[in-house]
Please model this.
Amino acid sequence: MTPVFSHGDLRLYLLNLLNEEPRHGYDLIQALAERTGGTYTPSAGTIYPRLAKLEEEGLVTKRIDGRKTVYEITEAGRAEVAARTGDFESIEADLADSVRLIADEVRGNVRAAMKSLRADLAAAAASERNSAPEPDPSPDLRTRSREELHRADVALTEFRARIRTDLRSHAARGGEVTATVVDTLTHALDAAAREVRRALGEK
Model:
């Protein structure tokens, strides 16, 4: 997986978050997850060493507030943020591209599955049109129907497993499934359901 932040970018992003307001470590982790659309949820082992380095450079200070350690930006830190406004805007643009790429990947998987489903439905519909109508389904027809129902169940199960694996793998790599991704999947499934009903001759 391509790193979300290039070398040095996370340092600047942390400074910018602290420039908005003082924050404790967990708050910074949550803010990063939200600002990156769920594409990056850093661990404490990633954040705290960088905060310690920023403190060592005199760019942030820390204070104890109950059980929390709150970090605040210094004047030197604010000066660096102000001097690197253009760099920060470039980082924000790169993060927006990452969110779009993840959504596109999910859409691609759903579209491929729908294309296969439509082909199967079209073949089934053509077969039905070419078959002589039977007022009373014969045992052979019922047997074929049960076989096709079983094949449909297998296809649906495989599709669910494939998409679920993609989503869980992304989350396991530190990403977060966004509302945009879920909405894309929901709309695609609705469209597939309409195709099935149309092939069955239902409205």
Q: What stands out?
A: The first strand starts at residue 23 and ends at 24.
